Amino acid sequence: MPYLIDRAIPVGSFAGSGQPTLTVPGGALLRPWLISDAGAVTEAFRDPAIQRWHVRRADSVDEARGWIQEWQGSWGEESAGHWAVADADTGAPLGRMSLKAWNLTDGTADLAYWMMPAARGGGICPRAAEALANWALDEAGFHRLELQHSTANEASCRVALKAGFEGEGVRRGAALHADGWHDMHLHARVRQG
Ligand SMILES: CC(C)(COP(=O)(O)OP(=O)(O)OC[C@H]1O[C@@H](n2cnc3c(N)ncnc32)[C@H](O)[C@@H]1OP(=O)(O)O)[C@@H](O)C(=O)NCCC(=O)NCCS
């Protein structure tokens, strides 16, 4: 059955080109993950806050290497894009910024992030989220980006609002965490024009 609309983003738009590195104002960048980041990812997932909100832990550096391989492969599959938030001078990973669940027909994706404990508190996360959203909406062709956080995660709500993701309501009992079901606050940014 033929579609009556064109896809918002043609299939093949990403697979044929490399994943870009993006500048984050204030001394950081978003770059593709490297296998050599596996130690930092393992360390990040020892943090209780990352475990709490991302409901995973990494039991070994080998396991983190496997995740990074999946994150790298998702670009060519056009299913997701995963970036390390990195120090612009040293390239050292400071956090993660991902656009997941790509739907190229509707031009939608979901934003997710964490920062390593030592890199928190300096406003890098909202600037990185805004930079990635700007690229996705203004250059990559996405139409709408969603972001969800537990209503108990106030820091994430601040990041969302500072990155331009307006609140759209609460999805009740929408995500299972270690302590039970959480209501999830939905935010979104929609391309203007
Ligand atoms: C959420 C997270 C990515 C934010 O990164 P960050 O570096 O702390 O971000 P910022 O320093 O820019 O702070 C963001 C805002 O949250 C506020 N904030 C930070 N921690 C907070 C807390 N525990 N409670 C309430 N507000 C908090 C800050 O004051 C700031 O608000 P302001 O700019 O209005 O002053 C980081 O805390 C983190 O990695 N947490 C664990 C994983 C996680 O929650 N991921 C998101 C899942 S949806």
Could you characterize the architecture of this molecule?
The model has no long low-confidence stretch (mean pLDDT 97). The chain has helices at residues 38-44, 48-54, 61-77, 124-140, 154-162; strands at 22-24, 28-32, 81-87, 93-103, 108-115, 144-150, 166-177, 180-190. The chain is an alpha+beta fold. 30% of the residues lie in helices and 33% in strands. The protein has a single domain (22-190), classed as Aminopeptidase. The site of coenzyme A has 20 residues, from helix 2, strand 5, helix 4 and helix 5. Coenzyme A binds next to helix 2, strand 5, helix 4 and helix 5.
For the structure shown, list the relevant keywords.
alpha+beta, single chain, binds coenzyme A, Aminopeptidase, eight-stranded mixed sheet, globular
The neighbouring-strand order within the major sheet is 1-2-3-4-5-6-8-7
How much is the radius of gyration in Å?
16 Å
CATH class: Alpha Beta
- The total strand number stands at 8
User: Biggest β-sheet, characterized?
Assistant: 8 strands, mixed
Q: Report the β-strand fraction as a percent range.
A: 25-35%
Bound molecules: coenzyme A
Which residues sit in consecutive blocks of at least 5 with pLDDT less than 50?
none
Number of helices: 5
Say what the CATH topology is.
Aminopeptidase
In percent, how helical is the residue content? Answer: 25-40%
Shape: globular
List SSEs in N-to-C order: EEHHHEEEHEHEE
Find the structural class using helix and strand composition: alpha+beta
Mean pLDDT, rounded to whole units? 97
